[in-house]
Amino acid sequence: MAHEDDALEHERASWKPSPGLAVAVTDPVQNPGLPPHRTRMTDQDPAAMKRAVRTVYTLFYVSVAASIWAIAAYMLFPIESGRIIDIRHNNLFIGLGIALALLAIGIGAIHWSKAIMSDKEFIEPRHATRGRDVTRAAAIQVFDEANEESGFGRRTVIRNSMIAALVASIAPGIVLFRGLAPFDSPEHPDAGNPVALLSHTMWKEGSRLAHDPTGEPIRAADLTLGSAVHVIPQELAELSHHDGYLEEKAKAIVLLMRLLPDQLIESEERKDWSYNGIVAYSKVCTHVGCPVALYEQQTHHLLCPCHQSQFDVTDEAKVIFGPAARALPQLPITVDDEGYLIATSDFNEPVGPSFWERH
């Protein structure tokens, strides 16, 4: 091994490049430095700086005004009135107020950083981060320099207007939670009791099943095998929006399906709830109330598009997958003397989400 090492060292020492071989020697990459600094108009002209400052805090105050307008719109166009025009105006003007509030904050913050904050380029050397006193003092110095460059502590009008805009922008969202609170009144005596509200719908004995939204009654003979029809009580089609059409429809919507009679698995108490293989179930999902309207004809499964709960139509709409806690309420049906499908009663349990069962 010693002789081999000596031979390698001798070979290295005696090696010389061939006459035609060029050996490139490169220097380390040179630092190109920073480009020339371009001075902004606000840095050259004090009047321009004042205009920029006024623009920024004006935008922040516009944001405050827009947030206040969103709250006012919630009160001026109450959705509790039930009028469709109020609901549309409520959504439109609250949305415009919140959008303008957030847009003004964004534009103001960008203009502040572009026109007022220091824009001088600098190189920050990288160094090891350690939790020593010197490091902590350096961190404090960085915050102090950032405060000085941004003018956050010095330009109190901009700072205070921005804080006011941010605080005000949250207010409309907080106010909108008012719509979730119960509002008992002579017109809505059960508004604070979800069980009472969801226990009764417009379905009653003798109510004809009608197409949604036309209100045209449905004959059992007209339903083909495998069909799925969106259904409402015929009386509901006669209601106006002012009379609570939307509220009643939200509870009474039904999906009507026709299967082969021998495909249905029915308990003894529900033997007469279907008619010749025709079954009707509430469309309101028992999870959070989304409309269950996706029907798989081959598997006879109903699918909720919101959170993928699945219900078996052949087995009393029991839950077979997903977060729903209970089966869809079934509407008992039969036919009248003219062959039209009718309800024999209302649902025998509250429709919609199962939160009302919690104690």
Automatic annotation (TrEMBL):
<keyword id="KW-0249">Electron transport</keyword>
<keyword id="KW-1133">Transmembrane helix</keyword>
<keyword id="KW-1015">Disulfide bond</keyword>
<dbReference type="Pfam" id="PF19297">
    <property type="entry name" value="QcrA_N"/>
</dbReference>
<dbReference type="InterPro" id="IPR005805">
    <property type="entry name" value="Rieske_Fe-S_prot_C"/>
</dbReference>
<keyword id="KW-0679">Respiratory chain</keyword>
<keyword id="KW-0408">Iron</keyword>
<feature type="domain" description="Rieske">
    <location>
        <begin position="251"/>
        <end position="342"/>
    </location>
</feature>
<protein>
    <recommendedName>
        <fullName>Cytochrome bc1 complex Rieske iron-sulfur subunit</fullName>
    </recommendedName>
</protein>
<keyword id="KW-0479">Metal-binding</keyword>
<keyword id="KW-0813">Transport</keyword>
<keyword id="KW-0001">2Fe-2S</keyword>
<feature type="transmembrane region" description="Helical">
    <location>
        <begin position="92"/>
        <end position="112"/>
    </location>
</feature>
<dbReference type="InterPro" id="IPR036922">
    <property type="entry name" value="Rieske_2Fe-2S_sf"/>
</dbReference>
<keyword id="KW-0411">Iron-sulfur</keyword>
<keyword id="KW-0812">Transmembrane</keyword>
<dbReference type="InterPro" id="IPR017941">
    <property type="entry name" value="Rieske_2Fe-2S"/>
</dbReference>
<feature type="region of interest" description="Disordered">
    <location>
        <begin position="26"/>
        <end position="45"/>
    </location>
</feature>
<dbReference type="Pfam" id="PF00355">
    <property type="entry name" value="Rieske"/>
</dbReference>
<dbReference type="InterPro" id="IPR045603">
    <property type="entry name" value="QcrA_N"/>
</dbReference>
<keyword id="KW-0560">Oxidoreductase</keyword>
<keyword id="KW-1003">Cell membrane</keyword>
<feature type="transmembrane region" description="Helical">
    <location>
        <begin position="56"/>
        <end position="77"/>
    </location>
</feature>
<keyword id="KW-0472">Membrane</keyword>
<comment type="function">
    <text>Iron-sulfur subunit of the cytochrome bc1 complex, an essential component of the respiratory electron transport chain required for ATP synthesis. The bc1 complex catalyzes the oxidation of menaquinol and the reduction of cytochrome c in the respiratory chain. The bc1 complex operates through a Q-cycle mechanism that couples electron transfer to generation of the proton gradient that drives ATP synthesis.</text>
</comment>
<comment type="similarity">
    <text>Belongs to the Rieske iron-sulfur protein family.</text>
</comment>
<dbReference type="InterPro" id="IPR014349">
    <property type="entry name" value="Rieske_Fe-S_prot"/>
</dbReference>
